[in-house]
């Protein structure tokens, strides 16, 4: 049963009809039935044997002698029926395909995460860049991965919800259909670590902005000449021309960091087709009409191309203007332009004065791309055509074939590569020396050399060394009344001055732990009996400095330190793999620490073994006998107070007496409170 009732089909699938032949009478001008035709029987039944129509008699029913009206009518009816059925079938098929296409565009599925293999940053990547150049790169770090045996880039879409809207799914499906030489291939999206990533083609040389910044690898004079710059602009124009004629129609985020360069120096455009996912941007590449009102347009892409072209020509910062450096100020000037008193729009600088005839054509084209009126900007078909003609003219003028140009460029590249290797070698040596200096600040020079040459440091026994320990008296109480940053600033101010004093003596700073400061002499480089002399001289210098040192956040509060010195045998070596440290081991280290902890404020507590070594040297140390002192783990020993060196003057602070020391320790918290009140009163004024 069909829409018009019961349908009868013959054995061939044709529909059977009962048709009536109707004519208009001449006499009464009425419709009358002349005959019936049954298609199932292929038979005609005459109803009116004496019809009243314009013919005197019925036409001849013999084919060939005269046209049979009924046969003609039957054929026409079957033809009309066939055409009607064909049209309806085509309409139904078209509608079904359209429905399937729309249904497919509304569906989107991520690439399975197990098909994506993230790569380390240094894997499958060879570069002449050193760390200093990498720090100058302005582009964000992108994740590289392996997908379908190809290296790809994973770009974070900053899209937490994996459920895309219908419009976003349609845009992503359109992206999958884009396949052009100057556009990066889009493979899909993947959900990894609760983030949604866009999977796109990887280009080895990075962004166009990186290439323009690297004037060592791509110098202006030999490599990136005018011909090459025009070819770069031509690549971008071809890619954008294709993109504008595709279903995506517009880029919306075009800028030099979204143009990437592959290993054949072909420029490709990326980050297109995500306008429904990515938020609208407002930067130096954004056209004025979209700075004023959010949106994207093809003419806006042309403006962005003009800004990129100026970057390529000048090889300066983006939107370079000699009179303005602030990015926010540049955007403000572009956005708030008003056409008053013939004032020109705010645009980047172009050097028209020094340009030749062919270069002038390019500059005029670039200038037209950033016209204030979007309708006056050329489209990319026009830009592509003009750049193609200009590029061809460069070849015609030089009378070089493409092969000659290729050979010339290879020669230039070879010479530039030699220059590049030389420059990189110098930079590498400078970086190596800087790394060595940094290592020498963390480890002794002999230890660093041993690590570089053999990869290990053998522990070593030193028969005689002198070790220094000091700490701050009342440090815990000071921390109680100070903020963490004030404590850090206090220690930094104090120990920076200690470090500068160490530079004048043959000593090695072992480490600082909290307020404890540890120094040794006689290792890792042996110096005979001088180790005791150097430590005593350094101790006297440090104590002299403490006589004038004052805390910045606690003015007027006395700062006391205790110093302990001991000499004896010691073992030293590098311990650990991560963050290796040069450590000292042995009873000498423990005894030196006990000498410090049993000492007194503003005193240098020195052991008998160190006094014996000083006696063996020409230095005449001045000291006082303290008497018997109990040292944990050692028992009772005779110890001394170092007071100076003969014929040498030191401005040492006066140590407190035992009574004053006990009183000051009891009143120390009150003194800190008074100092804080003075500071607050001073700040209030």
TrEMBL record:
Any one Gene Ontology BP term = intracellular signal transduction
Which InterPro entries does UniProt cross-reference here?
A/G_cyclase (IPR001054), A/G_cyclase_CS (IPR018297), Cyclic_nucleotide_synthase (IPR050401), Kinase-like_dom_sf (IPR011009), Nucleotide_cyclase (IPR029787), Peripla_BP_I (IPR028082), Prot_kinase_dom (IPR000719), Ser-Thr/Tyr_kinase_cat_dom (IPR001245)
**Is Acetylation given among the entry's keywords?**
no
Key word ATP-binding present: no
According to its UniProt record, the EC number is 4.6.1.2
Main localisation: membrane
One molecular function GO term is: guanylate cyclase activity
- Looking at the record, the residues that make up the Guanylate cyclase domain are 466-596
The protein's topology relative to the membrane is: Single-pass type I membrane protein
Q: Which UniProt keywords apply?
A: Cell membrane, cGMP biosynthesis, Endoplasmic reticulum, Glycoprotein, GTP-binding, Lyase, Membrane, Nucleotide-binding, Receptor, Transmembrane, Transmembrane helix
According to its UniProt record, which reaction does this protein catalyse?
A: GTP = 3',5'-cyclic GMP + diphosphate
Indicate the segments forming the Protein kinase domain, all copies.
128-391
Q: Where in the cell is it found?
A: Cell membrane; Endoplasmic reticulum membrane
GO cellular component labels = endoplasmic reticulum membrane; plasma membrane
Q: Which family does the record claim for this protein?
A: Belongs to the adenylyl cyclase class-4/guanylyl cyclase family.
The protein depicted here goes by the name Guanylate cyclase
- Record the organism: Latimeria chalumnae (Coelacanth)
